[in-house]
Every structure is written in structure tokens, then in C-alpha cells.
Amino acid sequence: MCVAHRPPVMQMLLVLSLLTPGRGLTNNSSTTGNACGNMTVHVCVNTTGNVCGNTTVNVCSNITVKVYNLIHNPNMKQEYARALVAGFNASVNSTMTAERLPGGVKLEVVYVSPGSKGAMTPDVVLEHLEKKVNSSHNHSTLPVMLGPVGDVTAEHFLPVLRRTNIVAFAPFTGSSKIRVWHKNLYFITASPTAELLALLRYAVTQLRLERLGFMYLQGVSFGDEEYRLTVNALSNIGRGLCGLFTVKSSLTARADKGEFEAAWKKFAETRPQGVIVFGSPLHDTKEFLKRMQTEEGMKKVHLLLPSVLQLITEDTYKETVGVTTRRGKSPIYVSGTNPLAKDTNYKAIKRFREDMQNYLKKEPAGKHHSIQQHHYDHNDIDGEFMVYGWLAGEVLKEALGNPVWLKDRKTFMDSLYKQRRYMIDDLVIGDFGGECEGMAREHGAACECNQGGTVVYMNRIEDGHRLFPLKDGSLMLASSRCYRDMPQLYAPLSGVYVSLENNAIATRATAAFTDGASALTGRGQLGHGDRFFLHRLTSPAGGAVRALEKEMSERAVTAVFGVVNDAMLSMSNVVFIDPVTLSPRPKVARRNVLYLSPTLEQQLFVIAKNAATQGSDAVSALIRSKDAAGIQEMVRKVAKVFNMPLDTTVTLRDSDRVSGRLPPDGDVLLIGLAANDIEPLASHLDKHPGVRVFVPFFDFALLYDNITSAFKGRPGAERLLFATNLPHWAEGNAMSETVRGFHRAVPDKSKWTPLALLGFATGRAIQSLLSRMGEVTSETLVNSIFTQSVITADDMQYGPFSEKCDTWDVASLFNTRDCVVNYGAVRIALWSVARVFDPSLPCVAEAATPSIIYEKRGFLGLTDGQLIGVLNGALFILVLAIAGSALMLSKIFQDARDNRRAPKEPTDPVTLIFTDIESSTALWAAHPTLMPDAVEAHHQLIRSLIVRYGCYEVKTVGDSFMIACRSPLAAVQLAGDLQRCFLHHDWGTTALDDSYHEFELQKAEAGGYVPPTAHLDPCVYRELWNGLRVRIGIHTGLCDIRLDEVTKGYDYYGCTSNIAARTEHVANGGQVLLTRAAYYSLSTAEREQVSVTSLGEATLRDVPDPVEIYQLEAVPGREFAALRLEHELDEGEQDISSSATDSIRNE
């Protein structure tokens, strides 16, 4: 029996043997104190093989590990096989090997020669291993393979490996067919499915290809599954393949020439921009690649290849180099399963290079290989194979790290799946795991996982063998997924920012903006965080429009971000998200331009309100802009709102300076600040302490460095003011969640600037928006913004956005442009530049959201000027106007009850909405003078939304509504908008909120109730709650539809109306509840647009079976008390769902 103590570490010896007499080197040195003989561990390196029967041995200290090298395949070039084996040899020959292995463990590499026909069949390997093992003095063997190469070969080996409990380390395969749970195959790289996903992601997010094709061969068990996965993945993001090339082929014969020609012609007619090539590395695939590189019309098509096709790319290039002009920067991209040998950004690669260099010095090119020193620096494909082999050696050494694991073959195999993870410096391989029990998988265990690669690398190929890493193409997968369903690829937002080359201010501003925004772009970790992408487009300022149009014709462009000029904003076919304009201008009132920063108009309202509050007698204005007249008119109108006279208004040309034009005291609007205005402005403010100067935010942000340099330490900094909705970008230990995230993402303090934070906040808003979107196009992006209305990201909020006029507002008929609310900045504060330097200083004016109302509406919602214009018309025109107004008013106020909107088809499901004001009886008792106006506003808001979404007002009694919708999505959107509109409505009082606060506290005193809102911080409360609280219930189903002869309106009877009413009844104020029927009436794409939380099943009164309830997250962050399941109707209360009553419960 074995001696118990552990022997000293022995130096591990590697011998590369060709299995000829005398070539195999065995270290027969014994270990002191060990009574056992040698234990031989056979490690088989690639190819076929059946081995001797199982023999169990005791754990001994003197162990020889034999690695059977089976790296050979007739379809693999010999230089690639030699490179892979050289990398493996470099690993096991390294000086660190003896340190990593247990004492007494030795390695011996045995090369298994191919048969006479040059192929490694299982029979050849079996014959060899049986002969070799049986001839040894110790019949206890633990053979391990290195390899094999090829899907068919690996599949052929499996029965042999299973019978003999042998593990094949680092098999080199190319398709998904063999990548399933087999304990005997130990893959150390990411799967072909992961490579396919990386290729798809790169094509969609980085190349932004609109027309993508696919190629594979039938009949060779390679590419069929990948084609199916590609179709499904693209379908999930609303895309499809533009073309498919496929022909029947085989491992031994080419495709029929006529069939190939017909398939090629058909495929070429689809004019793909890119092609994913997943053909087996056979002649037909080579022929396809050659045609793609030589035929006119195909030379500029991007080719995307999995790593296995590197076996043929160099030969293909050499065969076409005399024909094609495709040289240099070739649009060929290939996925990789390990870093390149020259990519020294990885510590592991630095150590690989050391090991490789030492090995090649000790074993120079000769009989066993022909690899020269530093060959991996000149041929990147060979170098990549070397890294693969080196990693296989590193993993094997780690796997042999405990002699207890080497007890016998089964013990060794089992040890490989004990949640094994290998840390190769900064590369991680694993987790490997076996069969799991209970909830292990759900708790994070890797189960039935024999593949350890979780990263796919992307490279660009040039000259057939030169590879260049593409960092933006890397894909990282969660190791716990392993063989679960293919990870989902979400539809990306392909953003573009334009770098205007000949404008220094624009260049600096673009760099600052992207410092923040780029920190949030996709990094290859799949999920909603990998959906926002920004791409740089370089152009002279005068050619920006042409550059954008060209870009849009060639690649997907969802939206434009960052710095823009006036010419770009004139484009109506491009979506602009929060454009940073180089000079001040009024907002563009179009739905394709969306503002997240305060518009100039909003800033002027904040500034004018402060000036009026401070008792300013008059305001002077200096305006430098191409639209000076429009801005001057805007300034005049804003001043009139606050009864503030304009002292002087001066229009400046670009060459004019502010020197001599600034007054000695008073408030000044300086709109259109220039760089050489800053020093004269600072001096003037120092000399005249009675002057305050207001500048637009983008003027300040674009010249941030100049302003902070000129004003630091000067008293005038307290009186240079600007308005912003951003928190302080450079505040340490900030309370703002946005700022904390910004600092984590951009740790370089020199980059903490307002434009960088603006870029980061914009990116967070887009991420929040995308989390509720399915398909992403320019149109769906804009629709989603107006549909969601309010965007919340961290502590930033934007909206409500609205693109439809309220039909009850007659004034909107005179100016439809004002009905499009395409700006969303809220909580706009007035800052001094002094606060920029010291965040502890208070704002000049605390954050507020201005209401952009210029004139008080009078009769019929018209301004005085509009009313006078009507009255001064001719008598005939006046009569027609009055008659027309009467008809229009009738239509407007009847629209919600317009029978044309009513669902009438009894065989079509109807989505019913019930609403009710929470605690309305108590509110009427507490505020009898306030409630009439509040309920009137409540009715107007709901009716405007009913019309907007094409729904139908069934009945209204008191303060409750019953609404019918043909579209479930319209119903859900209406309910969500209702909550957001109530939140942002100006109720003119806080008394309603104070009452709700008191009602909650009274209920809490009774016991068993935790107030959801009464104890909120006032700032948090204002973001979540305001005014009347309405509870809403939604249900979808068939109804008994009848036309009421008295009201001449439609009513809806039956279980659907009853369940909808009961659903509303158990809701809390401010809460929207959907039944399962309503939620699943939405399509898959529509469900992507809404955010819900499942509340489980609820028992509703008079409903026989429990109903599954979902809560719509209409206002993210709101928390509610438990559903009111215990509540019963008070005496005298009746249901709106019953046509037998004319009243609704009024609670």
C-alpha cells in the first residue's frame, strides 16, 4: 500500500515521442518513501481511438501522465496542426509546470501517427493504445486525448471514449452538432453558436448592415442548425435575411456544378451588404469565398466567418490575389475563440510569448516542427493556433493539480466537472459542471456543461493571414447558460454623432459629449445594456448633410446625437435626440427632433421669472444668432408674460464684440456667447457689481473650458448665470444617482464636464427607453418616446412628450405646432458660475418646471387677440364662424362618446377600462370648494386621452369612467398616460396631497397598515405623486353589446365588464391593474413596449375563479399598499358595470 506522506516536488519531463523504439522517454526515478510503482496516466491528444479496459489503481506519488497527441485531420493544414501542438508543448515545457503539478507527477506527450492512408481512425488509435498500454509493466492507465480535430472525427470517437472513460481535451470542432453534453469531450473555447451570435451582433451593431445574407452547405452536418438560429435571432429583432446560398455537398465530393451556378445567380441578385458564411471548410465553401472576392458587385460585400474557416482563408486569398483588387483593408471578419498571439493587452498572452520563445530556443525548427522564432508575429492564424494549444496545456496542468483526482479514470473525469473554473492569468475558462440536483442550477451552478469558453473575439482579416482585433466586436456570455437556449440578441439603437472637422469648438464639444455617452454603449454583455451604440461620422461642417445622407443610404442609422448645425436640423428624415446646437436657436417644432435639455424658450422662462422675482426693472438683450429675429420675438413674449419691460435689444454680428455694449447695471440676456467675449465679460462683471448676465446653457457648455479659466477666483462668477436640468457633474460624494454612475463610468476627473454628463444622462435615458422596446427603428423610437410620454432614468426625468392636440382645447386649432410637445426637460435650476467651482453653493433659483403659456385663454380658450380678430370680421364671416364654432364644440365634447369609435362586433374581444378616484367622498367632504374644479380637470384629461387613443366613453357617473377600446394596446397606453398626465397636471393646490397624506396616517393608526406615501421625502413624493389619485382596472373579453335607446350610446354587459370593474375595485389610487387576459391580448412586440409586474392570482368579488393580476408600471418608483381584496362595496354603492343602475360607487 502507499505511504501516506507527500513526496517532494519532482521536475516534470515532457517527451515528444513518435512511438518508434527508443523514442519514448520515461523517467524511472523513484520517490523516497513511496512504496508504489509508477502510475501511468495516458493523455490522448486528438483523433480516433478505443482504449484498454478500465483499471482502478490507488493514488500514488509517482505518476506519469501520457498525453496522446491526436491533432491531425486531412482537412487541416499541417502547419496549423504543428502550430497548435507547438503551443501545447510550450505550455508543458514552461518553467512553471513543475511548480503547478503535484510532487511526483510527470508528463509524457505521445504523438499518434496517422494510418497508412493519412487518417486517424478509431481502430488505429485503439490498436495503438491497447498495444502500448498492455505492453507496460503497470497495467493501470488513465489515457487522456489532446483533440481530436473535426466534428465527424469527434463524433466517431465518442463510443470509444465512453467505453473507456477517457477524456478528450480541447477538441477542435466547428459546428453546433457535436457541442452538446458529453462528459468525454472537454471543450475549452466558446461554442460555434456563440461565434454565430458574435458574427450576427457585429453585423447588426457595428457594420449596421441592412441586407444580410447567409451561406451554408447541406448534407455535411455543418451550418444547418446555425442557419435556423440565425433566422430566429433576426426575427426577434424585426429583421430577416435578404438572401440564402446553399447547395448539397459532401466531405468527399463537390456540389453539382449546375446547382451551384443556379444558387449563386439567385443569391447574387439579392445584393447583400454582408454574408455570414457558415459552410464546412470544403471545396464548395472555398469556391463561394473566391467568387465573393472576385466577381463584380460582390467585392465590397462584408464577409463574416467563424474561426474554423480560417483553415481555408489563406489558401483562398492566395488563389485570388492575381484576380482580385481586394487588397489591404479587406471587409472580411472572423470570430475567434482566444486572443491573438500579438495582443499583449492580456497578461496571459505576455506569458504565452515568453513560454513560446523559450520553447523555440530549446527546440529549434528541425525534425519535429518547422516553426521559426517569432513566427507568431508574422502569421496571425498560426499564432492563434499556438495560443489555443498553449491554453489547452495550461488547463490540463490545472486539471492535474491534485493527485487525489488521478486515482482512476472515472475519478479524474468526475473531478473535471466539480464546478471547475480555470484562471489563466486574466483569461477565464469555465465553469464546467456535471449533473445537478434540486435547485442548484437556479442558484447559479453550471450543470451538464463541458464547454468553458465564455468570450468570442472578433478580428479583421487582411492578406489572408493578418488578423487585427476588433474590440467592439467581443462577445461575453454568462457561463451559467452553457447549453441553454441561444442568448437573445436584442434590437440595437444605431446612433451616429457627427464630428465637424473644421470647427474647433464643435470638435471639443463632440469629444466631451462622447466621453460620457460612449461609457454606456454596448460592450458585448448581451441584454438591454448592450443595445445602445454610437458611431462616429467625420465631415466638414459644410458637408454634414451629404455625409449623413450617404451614411443612411449604406448603413442603419436610428438617430443622431451630440453636436449639430442648422443645416443638419433642417433634415426631416433623421431623428435627432437632444441636439447640441452650435448657436442659439428656437426649438424645432417637429416630431423628429426630441429635446432632453432645456430649450431656449424654457431657459428664458426660468431666467425671466428670477429677474422678476428679484425686482429687476428692465432687461437688456444682446443676441448673436442666425435667427436673431425669432429669438428677439421670443424674448419679447417671455418678458411680457412676467410684465417686464425690455430696455434695449441689440443684434450682434459674428464679428461684433460685447465690449462697450454691456450696461453698467441691471440684468442682461447675452444669447450667442463667443469665445473672445469671455474676458471682456469677466472684466465688466468685476467692475460693475450691479450687473447680472444670463447665457444659454449650450453657450456655457460649449465654452466651458474658456469660462472656467477666465472666471476662476473672480467675483463676477457669482453673476454670470445659466439654467440647466443637470445635477453638478463634478460634485464629490454626490447624492445624485446619475452623477455617481457618471463618475464610476468616467473615473478621469479631467473629463467631468457638463457636456460629458449630458452625454451620459442622454445614454441612460436611451437605455431606459430601450428596455421597453422590441423592434428599434427611427419611427418606432419616436413613437415609443411619445407613447411612453415620460422617461425616467436614475434621478433624471423627461417629459411628458405629446404629439397630439387635446381636442377639447379650441385654441390648439389656431396653432397645431404648439400642440407637439417635443421637449422634456423638467426641474430646471438657475446656476451661477461660482457654483460650478463650489457645488456647496446653492442655486440662484431652485429647480422648477416652467409652464410655457404666453397669454391667458379667454372665451372658448382663445387669446384676446384671437377673439378680437374673429369679432372684427365681416358679419357674414362672423355668423359662419359662430355656427362653425358651435358645430366644432359639439363635435369636440362629443368625440369621447362618438358611436363611430365604439366596439360593435360581438365576436371581437373588447378591452374595458374602469376608473375611480380614490377617497373621493372624503375629498368632497374636506374640500367642497376645490373638488368641482379638480373633477372637471379630471374629466377633461380623461376625455382627451379617450379621443387620442380612439377609444369610447361608455358611461360616466360622478367621478368614475367606463371606457371601451378595440385595441388592448391603446387601452394600456391610455391608462399609463392617464397616470402620467395626472402626475404632471397643475392642480393649483397641494391640499389634495395633504389630504391623502392624512388619510394614510389615520389608517395606519388603526393598525395593520403601512402608509406607502405618507412618509416619503417631499422631493421624492413630488416626483411620484401629485393631485387626484385614480385607480384603474383593465380586462379583455367578449361582451354582450347593446345600443341604449335612451342615451343612443353603446353599453357592454356580461362577465367581461364585471371582471374589469372588480379589477379596478381592488386597485389602489394611482395604480393600474391588468388581468392576464388583458395582458396576453397584447402581441409579443406590444408587450415589449409596456412594463408590468405580476402580482399573482387574486380572488375578485362575484368572480368564481381566481384571476391573475399584473400591475402596469405607469410611473416607475411608485409603491402601493396590498390589493384591496378584503374591501366590500359600501351600502348604497353600485357597479358601473351593471346597466341596471345609473350610478357608480363613489368612494
Automatic annotation (TrEMBL):
InterPro entries: A/G_cyclase (IPR001054), Adenylyl/Guanylyl_Cyclase_3/4 (IPR050697), GRESAG4.1/3_peripasmic_1 (IPR057399), GRESAG4.1/3_peripasmic_2 (IPR057398), Nucleotide_cyclase (IPR029787), Peripla_BP_I (IPR028082). The keyword Transmembrane applies. Residues 1-24 form the signal peptide. It holds the Pfam family Peripla_BP_A-cyclase. Keywords: ATP-binding, cAMP biosynthesis, Glycoprotein, Lyase, Magnesium, Membrane, Metal-binding, Nucleotide-binding, Receptor, Signal, Transmembrane, Transmembrane helix. The chain crosses the membrane at residues 867-890. SMART domains: CYCc. Its EC number is 4.6.1.1. Residues 911-1064 form the Guanylate cyclase domain. GO terms for cellular component: membrane. Belongs to the adenylyl cyclase class-3 family. This is adenylate cyclase.
